[in-house]
């Protein structure tokens, strides 16, 4: 019989240690069973993340301008949360991710129920690439290998419908543009 399978003799605990361990176990059980997260999912646990709202405009290569209301994900917690757990989003809304640095980026759709178009943006707001019609709940990496400063998530099909393409511009103060009205 392997050593790990042998029965071990019971080691008696000092009465004080026994009370301390029992108290810790009971406290841990109450924290898990009746604590603030009891019976609630991950969506509730992250619901205290608040996003700043703003406006962006997408200007296509032929001069058409499309305004969107966006939530802005600036902090690590906001970027990690993104649009997770949401079941709907208005057609003229989106989420703008501010990475505060330029490098290749990757996203996934874990816990994201809305199919999206993800626009990967350069430091000046120019669209580097678009991941169209992403698959909800997928854990596959969606990678942009270019000099990515930000990303804009819109409802899937928006880019196709409006003719938005790589090379078009996203306007927002993050990219040095005046505030959008």
TrEMBL record:
Transmembrane segments: none
Top-rank taxon, per record: Bacteria
InterPro entries: DUF192, Saro_0823-like_sf, TAT_signal
Any Pfam family the entry gives: DUF192
Alphabetical list of PANTHER family matching this protein: UPF0127 PROTEIN MJ1496 (PTHR37953:SF1)
Identification of the protein by name: DUF192 domain-containing protein
Species this protein is from: Roseospira navarrensis
Lineage, top ranks: Bacteria, Pseudomonadati, Pseudomonadota, Alphaproteobacteria, Rhodospirillales
């Amino acid at each position: 019989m392997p050593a790990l399978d042998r029965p071990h003799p019971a080691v008696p605990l000092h009465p004080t240690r026994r009370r301390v361990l029992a108290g810790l176990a009971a406290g841990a059980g109450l924290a898990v069973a009746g604590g603030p997260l009891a019976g609630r999912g991950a969506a509730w646990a992250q619901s205290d993340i608040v996003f700043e709202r703003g406006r962006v405009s997408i200007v296509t290569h032929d001069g058409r301008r499309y305004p969107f209301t966006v939530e802005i994900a600036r902090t690590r917690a906001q970027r990690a949360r993104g649009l997770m757990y949401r079941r709907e989003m208005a057609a003229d809304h989106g989420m703008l991710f501010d990475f505060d640095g330029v490098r290749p980026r990757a996203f996934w759709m874990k816990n994201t129920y809305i199919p999206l178009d993800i626009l990967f943006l350069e430091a000046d707001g120019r669209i580097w690439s678009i991941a169209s019609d992403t698959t909800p709940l997928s854990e596959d990496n969606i990678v942009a290998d270019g000099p990515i400063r930000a990303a804009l998530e819109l409802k899937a099909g928006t880019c196709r419908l409006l003719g938005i393409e790589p090379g078009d511009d996203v306007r927002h103060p993050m990219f040095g543009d005046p505030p959008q009205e």
